[in-house]
Design a protein that fits this description.
The protein has 312 residues and is an alpha/beta fold. The protein is built from ten helices and eleven strands. The strands form three sheets. Strands 3, 4, 5, 6, 9, 10 and 11 form a seven-stranded mixed β-sheet that branches.
């Protein structure tokens, strides 16, 4: 049967202060309470640990044998308390994040930079570029950032998926594309031209495939590339029409493309989601990050007008 650690630490305090009364003052306990703890420890060990002599306390061989372990125990307890305090004050911690390529590159990065600036003692591990969520081990991560149209299976029951940010999906054309001469465009108008598609697990692709299906249209699967940058480069080169989040279009001013909202004037809204543990299951680090990200939707700017055809 194990010995109550409080008994050992009380015993150590008595030995170091030299008396029960001094130990009682140091531990903010009554002398009878200290005496009771010493008696319980003696009973648990099964032999005398100290004797009273000359107004003080002297250790027996049994008591001497306990001192090194009691000191180690105190060191571990102090180390434990220090860890708890540092984590509570966000002086240490680990945040493990998984995100798709688009979310990691165009939405999440600057928030992580700001978070690390505020909490420099917290380590942030992020894995971006996740295409197929089956490739990751869910228990190894804390937070998951998903694109609209993507489902993350096998989340623990205490996780919740909630909207995080909204953006829009723009249809992008090479400069001087003939469709740009029209004041209004419909999805059917795109079918006569090659379309550059994202990879099959992309949230943007799945969203656009659903849009075409709801319109009763079957677009040609002309070109497939991986990543938003590849779509922008392909469209800029004139290989076809593509679909890109407005945040990416704002970033890449070097692309020779023009974005249009279809259908005008509202276009397609696109929601990004965050999967996080319920509050009762959040670490101090996760709780701080979720609070930090709280009103991120309001901080997201609108698409730059220079990239969107003024006719729309």
């Amino acid at each position: 049967m194990g010995v109550d650690t409080e008994l050992l630490l009380t015993f150590l305090t008595v030995m170091e202060t030299g008396s029960i009364s001094a130990a009682a003052r140091a531990l903010h306990r009554s002398q009878p309470a200290i005496t009771e703890r010493l008696q319980k420890l003696t009973h648990a060990v099964g032999e005398p640990l100290y004797v009273r002599a000359g107004g003080g306390i002297h250790l027996t061989p049994g008591g001497e044998a306990l001192l090194p372990s009691a000191r180690k125990l105190r060191h571990i307890a102090q180390e434990f308390d220090d860890i708890v305090v540092r984590r509570q004050r966000l002086r240490e911690g680990l945040l493990r994040i998984v995100a798709t390529n688009t979310v990691a590159s165009y939405f999440l990065s600057h928030y992580l930079v700001a978070f690390r600036a505020r909490y420099p003692d917290i380590d942030v591990h992020m894995r971006g570029g996740v295409i197929d969520w089956r490739e990751i081990s869910v228990p190894d991560w804390d937070l998951f950032f998903l694109e609209g149209g993507l489902d993350l299976e096998e989340l623990p029951s205490y996780y919740a998926v909630s909207p995080w940010l909204q953006d829009e999906i723009l249809t992008v054309f090479p400069e001087n594309h003939p469709l740009l001469l029209r004041e209004e465009l419909a999805w059917r108008d795109l079918l006569a031209y090659p379309i550059v598609w994202r990879e099959r697990y992309s949230g943007i692709r799945r969203t656009m495939e659903r849009v075409f299906a709801e319109a009763g249209l079957v677009p040609r699967q002309s070109i497939e590339v991986t990543g938003v940058e590849a779509v922008g480069t392909a469209v800029s080169a004139g290989l076809g029409i593509g679909f890109i989040t407005a945040a990416a279009l704002r970033r890449h001013t070097e692309w020779k493309v023009v974005g249009r909202r279809i259908p005008a004037p509202t276009g397609i809204r696109w929601t990004l989601y965050m999967a996080s543990p319920q509050p009762t299951h959040q670490s101090h680090t996760i709780r701080a990050f979720v609070a930090f990200m709280g009103d991120a939707a309001e901080r997201l700017g609108s698409p730059a007008s220079a990239h969107i055809d003024g006719g729309q």
